[in-house]
Amino acid sequence: MGTRILAVEDDERIREAVKLALEDEGWTVEGVASGEAAIEAFDRHPVDVVLIDIMLPGIDGFELCRTLRRNSDVPIVMVTARNDTHDIVAGLEAGADDYMTKPFMSKELSARIRALLRRIRPAQLGHERLVFGDLELIPEEGKVIQNGEEVHLTKTEFRLLCELALNRGKVFSREELLDRVWEYDYFGDGRLVDVHIRRLRTKVEADPANPRHVVTVRGLGYRLQ
Question: Average pLDDT in the 133-160 region?
Fold first, then answer.
């Protein structure tokens, strides 16, 4: 089965334009106009990527993202009509892997989706188990074990943790992590890194406010210790 994309957009004109552009890339696209319809479609057919407009009637994009995240690590791209820091950060905190601001070019959207699809394949990391402290990473299986219990991470969170673990002790700038994890640097945003680091800490740190594993090196970036 080819790549399936679920596009959630209440503006019919935009929804159809996105659908046609992505179908031209060879992907199968289902477009829906509301969060409620998106949940029904998601439960009915598995998809590889979900695009969610923040401003939706009924269930808004933030709540839809949180709902999908409760049971799935499917890659999610939030779409906002304005470059508002609050909306962007809130969308990422809700569980999105990436965001885009309207208006956007179809080529940029396609590039983002291709980058998402490339980095969700943990087997490509090609390393055996990695152990540091109470955490154990199994890259080829996409698993993180902490004190004998599996920790649920999204695919992007897992890729971020693996990148840090494979280079333990190395300080990564935001730009380096955008390039290595998100696989783009010319239209990336450091907020993607900061929010994902915060989300990662809530899952792998006993005290996220005082992390032992994923630490900040002031003025430089992040490293794993």
Answer: 87
